[in-house]
Amino acid sequence: SGLEDLTGLKSLGERDQAVIWHPFTQMQTAPLPIPIVRGEGTRLYAEDGTTYIDAVSSWWVNTHGHSHPYIAEKVAQQLQTLEHVIFAGFTHKPAIELAERLLPVLPTNQNKIFYSDNGSTAVEVALKMAFQYWHNTGQPRRKVIALEDAYHGDTFGAMAVSGRSAFTSPFVPFLFDVEYIPTPVPGREQEAVNQLQSLLSDDVAAFIFEPLIQGAGGMVMYKPEILNQLIGMARSHGALIIADEVMTGFGRTGKLFASHHLSEQPDLMSLSKGLTGGTMALGVTACTKKIYDAFKSEDKHKTLFHGHSFTANPLACTAALASLDLLLSDKTQESIQRISRRHAVFAEHLTQKPGVKNVRQQGTILAFDLDADSQTSSYFNTIRDTAYQFLLDQGVLMRPLGNVLYILPPYCITDEELDTVYAAIERLLQHIN
Ligand code: PLP
């Protein structure tokens, strides 16, 4: 059958290794995965009784803590009412209500919601809408401008507009061409402006970016003023503006969306991760009326021919509605501000520490670089593995991006738990310096 002999395998980790291939994991050298049997609040409970504070919100999705009873109850009710229905020719209340409630909290120009399954597909849809917008309006444009070190997901379109890295190198021959400008971090702002100026033409279909913070690229932060300027320039050549808020959405940056820090509004937005509070997979692409209208026609060829079997899954939409209730509550909004304030104090403290560089913070996200030498500061470095394991041993789940350490916690994290995370970082710094 191609299967190895599975008899005699005892632990969940061993059983996993016999049959499962994990994401972003070199299966030859990675240690056995840690089996988690329960989650509650910020805590993950392992099979062996160890607990971990989930300081990265399980890949940045979990906003209200694990197994939140309010979300669980709403999803359980929905599960007994309507678990799924084909979304072409049919609709349902959770999808309608979610769109009705999302649109008023998005930038004011957003007009329609298109559902998909995750962050990558939310980006794919935005790209397809952008390219087809130009196709439908009879003025096809081919170019996309993106930021260096961007990460927009792992499907082919999302990979194409991501920065070129180990993640994309085997696929480069199959990716459409994209032009890059430097991420406009302080010190490189003018370079980004100049580069954009030289690339802009009437052939640019879209300009895509992660507003204010590039996540997987290393929690790289840049200022709203420069992004406003770049958007203004791209827009003056007609380019459609795509804000990938898959990571930055739903309160992460201190405002509901990173786009709310900007005076320029995007034409298209990609959302996922925190959308369901991290409960279920769901993606959203929001767009303006101008884009939507370019697809409305008596000519069926102008249809957006895109959809997934699980488009607008009612359970996921219900989870998103419940998550939105929690997110908009005073309690969560206060928590977001509380975490931001505490991060700012710890950030100040970190700047004094030897071995720490480039401390940065935006809302609930705090990041800094371990001052590793250039040999070690790559995706493949060992300092990353050392830090990851050391923090796990302290009961804290953080997943460094190369030599970049960051905290991106669920909003329900208490002051005491934050202190535990900060203390673990302090011990790590002592350990490696
Ligand atoms: N866009 C951004 C900004 C992301 O951070 C991610 C995931 O980390 C994605 C897109 C892809 O989302 P997903 O992993 O849900 O496909």
UniProtKB/TrEMBL annotation:
Main location: cytoplasm
Tagged with keyword Transferase: yes
SUPFAM superfamilies xref list: PLP-dependent transferases
Residues annotated for pyridoxal 5'-phosphate binding in this entry: 119-120, 244, 308-309
Required co-factors: pyridoxal 5'-phosphate
Entries under InterPro entries matching the protein: Aminotrans_3, Aminotrans_3_PPA_site, BioA, PyrdxlP-dep_Trfase, PyrdxlP-dep_Trfase_major, PyrdxlP-dep_Trfase_small
UniProt keyword terms in alphabetical order: Aminotransferase, Biotin biosynthesis, Cytoplasm, Pyridoxal phosphate, S-adenosyl-L-methionine, Transferase
Site residues, Participates in the substrate recognition with KAPA and in a stacking interaction with the adenine ring of SAM: 24
Catalytic activity as recorded in UniProt: (8S)-8-amino-7-oxononanoate + S-adenosyl-L-methionine = S-adenosyl-4-methylsulfanyl-2-oxobutanoate + (7R,8S)-7,8-diammoniononanoate
Subcellular location field: Cytoplasm
First and last residue of the signal peptide: none
Binding residues annotated for substrate, in chain numbering: 59, 151, 273, 307, 399
EC number: 2.6.1.62
GO terms for cellular component: cytoplasm
Pfam families: Aminotran_3 (PF00202)
Metabolic or biological pathway, per its Swiss-Prot or TrEMBL entry: Cofactor biosynthesis; biotin biosynthesis; 7,8-diaminononanoate from 8-amino-7-oxononanoate (SAM route): step 1/1
Residues the record lists as N6-(pyridoxal phosphate)lysine modifications: 273
Annotated GO MF terms: 2 iron, 2 sulfur cluster binding; adenosylmethionine-8-amino-7-oxononanoate transaminase activity; dethiobiotin synthase activity; pyridoxal phosphate binding
Gene3D superfamilies, per database record: Aspartate Aminotransferase, domain 1 (3.90.1150.10), Type I PLP-dependent aspartate aminotransferase-like (Major domain) (3.40.640.10)
GO biological process: biotin biosynthetic process
Quaternary organization: Homodimer.
Family to which the UniProt record says this protein belongs: Belongs to the class-III pyridoxal-phosphate-dependent aminotransferase family. BioA subfamily.
Function of the molecule: Catalyzes the transfer of the alpha-amino group from S-adenosyl-L-methionine (SAM) to 7-keto-8-aminopelargonic acid (KAPA) to form 7,8-diaminopelargonic acid (DAPA). It is the only aminotransferase known to utilize SAM as an amino donor.
Name the record gives this protein: Adenosylmethionine-8-amino-7-oxononanoate aminotransferase
Annotated source species: Larkinella knui
